[in-house]
Amino acid sequence: MYFGLSTKDVRKLAFEFAKKMNLKMPAYWTENEFAGIDWFLNFIKRNPTLSIRQPEATSLSRSMNFNPINVNIFMDKYESVITKHKFEAFQIFNLDETGITTVQNPCKIVAQKGKKQIGAITSAERGTLVTMCLAVSAVGNAIPPMFIFPRVNFKDHFIRGGPPGCIGTSNKSGWMQGEEFLKFITHFTNHVRPTIEKKVLILLDNHESHLYLPVIDFCRANGIVLLSFPPHCSHKLQPLDRSVFGPFKKCINQEMDSWLKSNPGKRFTIYDLPAVTTNAILNAATPRNITSGFAVSGVWPFNRNAFSIDEFAPAVVTDIMLHTTENNNEIQSINTEIPSINTITQTPSINVEIAEQRLSDKISPEMVRPYPKVQIHQKIGKKGGRKKGKTAILTDTPEKNELENKAKKKNENIKRKLFNTDKKSKKVKATAIKKQKNKNKTLVIDSDDDEDAFCTICSELYSDSKSGEPWIQCVRCKLWSHEACTPQNYTAYYICDNCEADN
Questions:
Q1: Shortest CA distance to 441 belongs to which of 489, 475, 483?
Q2: Cβ neighbours of 406 (radius 10 Å)
Q3: Could you tell me if 184 and 199 lie in one domain?
Q4: Neighbouring residues of 281: CB distance < 8 A, sequence distance ≥ 6
Q5: How far apart (Å, rounded) are the C-alpha atoms in residues 78 and 229?
Q6: Residue 166 lies in a domain
Q7: Exposure of 157 in the CB half-sphere (CA atoms within 13 A)
């Protein structure tokens, strides 16, 4: 359920369970309120199927959204698409992006035992990210990738030494955007050659660039069907994430380590990434790995029951409807059991003994420490933000119309903001001037010399002025004046009349 127990949690649970069962325990258990380390080591020996593992971090959104309901909705849409168009394995593709950085995670090396720190060379403290977009088919083929560099202008030498047939582009961020995605779809079409009569299916996530309206129009015109995964479910449903990108990251780290050893003293840059990516893709995007990813995700061969109940277990924690239903069932079962208990004709002492015996039989570790469960009134996730995506056939007419309406509303909002720019700019300018004036005001003068300061206009001493009356200082001569005596046409800084006359 992604809420595992650490070694100390297991020892504490053992103490709580022993206390609940009224078992004898060592005195230091009671003092520390958890079992000893010797008990834990023997517990591991008695249960050879258990081991101490390093868990993989999984976001709350993924644990919540990967549930049977979302998976079944996706499987229904996927089954309807492959049935309607009669897609075969060579017509089904998966497309996704991954980030490659110029600073690798060093691979494990052989070193002397007992040495505390082992170093490895990297090009910098923090790397520069380059996005790589890749598409693979269910038969194990891969389309040459596209690289997106964080540069304003793209040059052909950026992809020198890259995989055969690869292309490149650039933008300021180095991330996939709508225009870059349209370029990759065009590149994909040149290799696959889909038509209206022989369509192909692309499975992809709900990234904003994938919902770019010109891309939808291009796909409809060229016989490409787009089906999106449910939000935050790609770690289980997407073939590339299941079996290709993991080995690819390991291979790219090994290639970068080898490059740094072959080029001592030289810094690894983004222009060296395509060359080291060539061998990494050949070793990671193999037909065996690609077809394995499609199989374990239930995409091809189509398998609606590819995921076990245990894989949906993390979603149970936030399953509020199931929680309330189970509570109602428990209440009803308790109400129906109470009359049957009252009909038992036994002495009170025997009833107590039987109740204690039943209680001891029913006690389990789960009763001592229940599974985590979200409260019914608790708000899950943050409020507001971008609207949550959904699994959809993006090239269908209803989905396309919805995207067009969103784009239309967005353009209307932009126009409305442009029309109100003049009014807002005047307000902002006036507010900025007012704030700057307030900054220049000095209501309290601490130094002894400034207590005898006089106004450069009316010659009144500061000590004789009214309490709380604002004074303002010239930025050049550093002399003071009443704010009421000064002209109100200054903007950022106040310059007295004497300094103005000197100019």
A1: 483
A2: 13
A3: yes
A4: 134, 142, 145, 163, 248
A5: 10
A6: yes
A7: 1
Short-list 245, 244, 246, 278, CA closest to 259:
278
Indicate the SS3 state at residue 373.
coil
Q: Which pLDDT score, from 0 to 100, does residue 489 have? A: 61
Q: Helices (H) and strands (E) in the chain — how many of each?
A: 20, 9
Residues with Cβ within 8 Å of residue 322, at least 6 apart in sequence: 316
In the prediction, which pLDDT does 3 show? 73
* pLDDT at res. 85: 94
DSSP state of 263: S
Q: Is 228 helix (H, G, I), strand (E, B) or coil?
A: strand
What pLDDT does 374 receive? 60
> Whose structure tokens read 């993924």?
62
List the beta bridge partners of residue 441: 472
The helix/strand/coil state of 65 is: helix
Whether the ω angle into residue 145 lies within 30 degrees of 0, i.e. cis, is no
Return d(Cα 330, Cα 335) in angstroms, integer. Answer: 9
Tell me which DSSP letter residue 343 carries: T
- Laid out side by side, the sheet with 167-171 consists of 167-171, 142-150, 129-137, 92-101, 200-204, 224-228
Count of domains in the chain?
3
Instruction: Pull the structure tokens for residue 89.
Output: 């394995």
169 and 36 within one domain: no
What pairing do the DSSP bridges indicate for beta strands 142-150 and 167-171? parallel
- Specify if 228 maps to a domain: yes
In a domain, 383, yes or no: no
Tokens of 412: 């209307």
Q: What is the CATH number of the domain that holds 444?
A: 3.30.40.10
Determine, yes or no, domain membership for 344.
no
DSSP label at 156? G
Distance CA 292, CA 300 (A): 9
Phi, psi of 225 (to 5 degrees): -100, 125
If the chain, 503 residues long, is cut into consecutive pieces of 10 residues, what is the mean pLDDT of each piece? 80 87 87 89 91 79 80 93 94 95 87 84 87 96 96 93 95 93 96 95 91 92 94 91 94 92 91 94 95 95 89 69 41 41 43 49 65 55 57 80 77 69 55 51 45 72 75 80 73 71 64
Q: Which of 389, 397, 494 is nearest to 439 (CA)?
A: 494
CA 147 to chain centre: 22
- CATH code where residue 282 lies: 3.30.420.10
Interatomic CA distance for residues 322 and 332, integer angstroms = 16
Domain housing 475: 425-502
Would residue 369 be called left, alpha or beta, if left means φ above 0 and alpha means ψ between -120 and 50 degrees? beta
Count of all residues that appear for the chain in the document: 503
The token pair at 462 is: 């500061």
Instruction: Note the helical H segments in 3-67.
Output: 7-20, 27-32, 37-46, 60-65
- Look up tokens 């990210």; give the residue: 129
